[in-house]
């Protein structure tokens, strides 16, 4: 028999190096446990709680009515004539269909997205920032993830014989480490300051940059605000310092702002990097290269499966932007239903329109509930011995630090696992709670963390936290 054309020995080594913790071995095991429960297996719990990923609807969040009605109408246009949906829903569906080839969402759109939707996104950004936005600089995407990867791909090049490097926060969202591994880009890690609510210190950026300069050419800086997995919201002063740093060092700034609607803590406020950069004036406003990202998977919407998102490009060379758009065109276009959801987020029902009252009530209820759960999760972990959890200022996650007994660390090493991975597997097997170990995001050596979402509905979240507390007490007792 002829040998296989593709073997583990000749596979692209970047793929082998790639890891994506939020869908890693723990999640695979959680899926297996779910099947075991379905077949009647006896466990000390009745259901698996997937607190590993920011999937709001999977955790019981109700879809926003306006969005689902518009999607229903564009998918089955007979509803525009024959349903009792609100007039503004029908008009929105008509407008979107008119902008589609053949009047159907089954047709391809332009590779950068439907022009009408891109114009509405530009209007959203102008309203948010108080500064102009060009619709031509808006590119719709399959969630924010695809747009982020498209921008990172532009950096796959050696400069003066050195590989290109990208600065990413630690802890970070594993999309970044996975994509850098996939593209053969160098990962330049800068640590967020846990003692200062996961703040971003420019001195730490400088340290990371100087250290990396020996082995690679650093070309870009990633900032996640509000933070994932850490839940912090950067202050305006902090953003100004980051803008200055990126400009001084000639870096492309990637601003991951997909949680911009998720801000809960009193005194915290979201400022877009573009707004701050523009208001800082020259030379930053016209020179700093910026790509910012937004998604309908998060916020009050939580439409993760529809895969709608966008990026705005600011101050890129026109020739570079044209090449990026050319690259994106090879993927044809983002899903038109995702683009429809983007349109509903970018152009929300206006006061006086028929859908406004329901939409406004539903949006406020989701965000108020998330704020309540953000407080509940931090307060509960901080009340438990061996845990320290910063205030969840924004986003959808908590990233508590956990103390593990020396015997537990030794037991983990005996099994060939990182201590936080060992802990997370035990938690899953004994409680059905699926979290992501901190090592999947990066953490300071000698510290152990985990990421959990705040998405389980209040009653389930309370049950989850009670189970967590009992488990940790038993775990600590066993290994002390």
TrEMBL record:
Instruction: Name the Pfam families on file.
Output: Aminotran_1_2 (PF00155)
- Say if the entry is tagged with keyword Flavoprotein: no
State the Gene Ontology BP annotations. Answer: L-alanine catabolic process
Enzyme kind, highest EC tier? transferase
Q: Which residues form a coiled coil?
A: none
Pathway, per record: Amino-acid degradation; L-alanine degradation via transaminase pathway; pyruvate from L-alanine: step 1/1
Reactions the enzyme catalyzes: L-alanine + 2-oxoglutarate = pyruvate + L-glutamate
Q: Which UniProt keywords apply?
A: Aminotransferase, Pyridoxal phosphate, Transferase
E.C. number, please?
2.6.1.2
Domain Aminotransferase class I/classII large span(s) in chain numbering: 85-466
What InterPro entries does the database record attribute to this sequence?
ALAT1/2-like, Aminotransferase_I/II_large, PyrdxlP-dep_Trfase, PyrdxlP-dep_Trfase_major, PyrdxlP-dep_Trfase_small
Its family? Belongs to the class-I pyridoxal-phosphate-dependent aminotransferase family. Alanine aminotransferase subfamily.
From the Swiss-Prot or TrEMBL record, give the protein name: alanine transaminase
């Amino acid at each position: 028999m002829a040998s296989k054309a593709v073997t583990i020995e000749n596979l692209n080594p970047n793929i082998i190096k790639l890891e994506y913790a939020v869908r890693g071995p723990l999640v695979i095991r959680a899926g297996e446990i779910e099947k075991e429960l379905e077949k009647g297996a006896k466990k000390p719990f009745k259901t698996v709680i997937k607190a590993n990923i920011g999937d709001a609807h999977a955790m019981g969040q109700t879809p926003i009515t306006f969005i689902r009605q518009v999607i229903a109408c564009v998918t089955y246009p007979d509803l525009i004539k024959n349903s009792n949906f609100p007039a503004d829903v029908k008009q929105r569906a008509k407008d979107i269909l008119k902008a589609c080839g053949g009047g159907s969402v089954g047709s391809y759109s332009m590779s950068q997205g439907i022009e009408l939707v891109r114009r509405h996104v530009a209007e959203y950004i102008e309203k948010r920032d108080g500064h102009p936005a060009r619709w031509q600089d808006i590119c719709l995407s399959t969630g924010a993830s695809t747009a982020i990867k498209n921008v990172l791909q532009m950096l796959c090049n050696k400069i003066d014989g050195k590989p290109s490097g990208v600065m990413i926060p630690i802890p970070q969202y594993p999309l970044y480490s996975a994509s850098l591994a996939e593209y053969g880009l160098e990962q330049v890690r800068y640590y967020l300051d846990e003692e200062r609510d996961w703040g971003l210190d420019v001195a730490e950026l400088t340290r990371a940059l100087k250290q990396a300069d020996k082995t690679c050419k650093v070309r870009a800086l990633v900032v996640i605000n509000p933070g994932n997995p850490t839940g912090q919201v950067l202050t305006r002063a902090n953003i100004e310092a980051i803008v200055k740093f990126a400009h001084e060092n000639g870096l492309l700034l990637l601003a991951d702002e997909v949680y911009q609607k998720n801000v809960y803590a009193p005194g915290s406020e979201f400022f877009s990097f573009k707004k701050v950069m523009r208001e800082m004036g020259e030379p930053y406003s016209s020179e700093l290269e910026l790509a910012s990202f937004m998604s309908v998977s998060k916020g009050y919407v939580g439409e993760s499966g529809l895969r709608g998102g966008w990026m705005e490009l600011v101050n890129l060379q026109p020739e570079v932007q044209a090449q990026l758009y050319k690259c994106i065109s090879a993927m044809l276009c983002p899903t038109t239903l995702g683009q429809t959801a983007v349109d509903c987020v970018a152009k929300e029902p206006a006061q006086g329109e028929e859908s406004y009252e329901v939409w406004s009530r539903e949006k406020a209820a989701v965000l108020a509930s998330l704020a309540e759960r953000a407080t509940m999760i931090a307060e509960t972990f901080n009340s438990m011995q061996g845990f320290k959890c910063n205030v969840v200022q924004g986003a959808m996650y908590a990233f508590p630090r956990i103390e593990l007994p020396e015997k537990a660390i030794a037991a983990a090493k005996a099994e060939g696992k990182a201590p936080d991975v060992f802990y997370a597997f035990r938690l899953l097997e004994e409680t059905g709670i699926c979290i992501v170990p901190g090592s999947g995001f990066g953490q300071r050596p000698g510290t152990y963390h985990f990421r959990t979402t705040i998405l389980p509905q209040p009653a389930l979240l309370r049950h989850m936290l009670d189970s967590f507390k009992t488990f940790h007490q038993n775990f600590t007792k066993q290994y002390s």
